């Protein structure tokens, strides 16, 4: 009777410890804590914690343990190239964790976002966007011939674009490129656009890496800057990247590199 009581007591004591393992693989335990941490990582990346997810994670952890044990038994872990990959992976994880920790301790504030918004908005003040159409052809002679016909009224711009332009994105729309700031275009094209007034046709074809362009500015209007709420995510991300760049620079400057 005494021996039975001791056995029951031993089982009661051992039960909580055993319950902490979700599985064992060849005697190697997979703990509940490690499973919970794996699930937590997946949830932070957008997954939803559920019994199905936990079962999938458990099976994945079992598979990994089986394969890792096999790799260790085969001596794979001792191979130089494998050790290099493992070390590089470890470094990458630590660097990402360091950056995440820094951002958590130095969050971007509403004031920083507002100040950045005000600065960018001020930089855009007075700038224009242009409604442009063009005809793209492969050589200067073709461009000059078409331009001469358009100027003389013998050929309409729309018709020339639909028939001759090599730009598939705009040809069937009469060469229309829609509204955009000049900065959307390659430099020679942008310079021609900003030199033209509303309704003006460029005096000469413009050459870019794509070919020769006949350019007309149909209309202009001030750039309409979006409201803060619309661009907040982009501003926050830009500020976070700047924070990290400054932090990385300071760490490098403080390091003693010989």
Residue windows where pLDDT falls under 50 for at least 5 positions = 1-18
The succession of helices and strands, N to C, reads HEEHHHHEHHEHEEH
Distance between the termini: 74 Å
How many helices does DSSP assign?
9
- Tell me the overall shape: elongated
Fraction of residues in β-strands:
15-25%
- The counted number of beta strands is 6
Proportion of helical residues:
55-70%
Indicate the radius of gyration in whole angstroms.
33 Å
Major pleated sheet: 4 strands, antiparallel
Strand order of the largest sheet: 4-3-6-5
Classification by helices and strands: alpha+beta
Mean pLDDT: 92
Report on this structure:
- The protein has 258 residues and is of the alpha+beta class.
- It is 59% helix and 16% strand.
- The chain is built from nine helices and six strands, in the order H-E-E-H-H-H-H-E-H-H-E-H-E-E-H.
- The strands form two sheets. It has a four-stranded antiparallel beta sheet with strand order 4-3-6-5, sandwiched between helices. A two-stranded antiparallel sheet has the order 1-2.
- The longest helix has 27 residues, at 228-254.
- It is elongated, with a radius of gyration of 33 Å.
């Amino acid at each position: 009777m005494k021996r039975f009581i001791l056995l029951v007591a031993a089982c009661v004591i051992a039960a909580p410890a055993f319950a902490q393992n979700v599985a064992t693989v060849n005697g190697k335990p997979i703990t509940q804590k490690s499973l919970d941490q794996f699930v937590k990582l997946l949830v932070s990346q957008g997954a939803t914690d559920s019994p199905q997810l936990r079962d999938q994670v458990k099976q994945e952890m079992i598979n990994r343990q089986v394969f890792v044990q096999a790799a260790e038994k085969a001596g794979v872990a001792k191979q130089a190239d494998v050790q290099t990959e493992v070390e590089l992976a470890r470094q990458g994880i630590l660097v990402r964790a360091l950056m995440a920790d820094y951002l958590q301790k130095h969050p971007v504030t509403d004031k920083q976002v507002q100040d950045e918004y005000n600065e960018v908005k001020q930089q855009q003040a007075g700038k224009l966007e242009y409604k442009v159409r063009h005809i793209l052809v492969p050589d200067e002679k073709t461009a000059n011939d078409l331009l001469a016909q358009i100027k003389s009224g013998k050929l309409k711009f729309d018709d020339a674009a639909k028939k001759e332009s090599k730009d598939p994105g705009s040809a069937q729309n009469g060469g229309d490129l829609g509204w955009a700031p000049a900065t959307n275009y390659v430099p020679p094209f942008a310079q021609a656009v900003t030199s033209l007034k509303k309704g003006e046709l460029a005096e000469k074809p413009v050459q870019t890496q794509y070919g020769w362009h006949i350019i007309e500015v149909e209309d202009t209007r001030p750039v309409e800057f979006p409201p803060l709420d619309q661009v907040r995510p982009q501003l926050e991300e830009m500020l976070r990247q700047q924070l990290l760049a400054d932090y990385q620079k300071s760490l490098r400057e403080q390091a003693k590199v010989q």
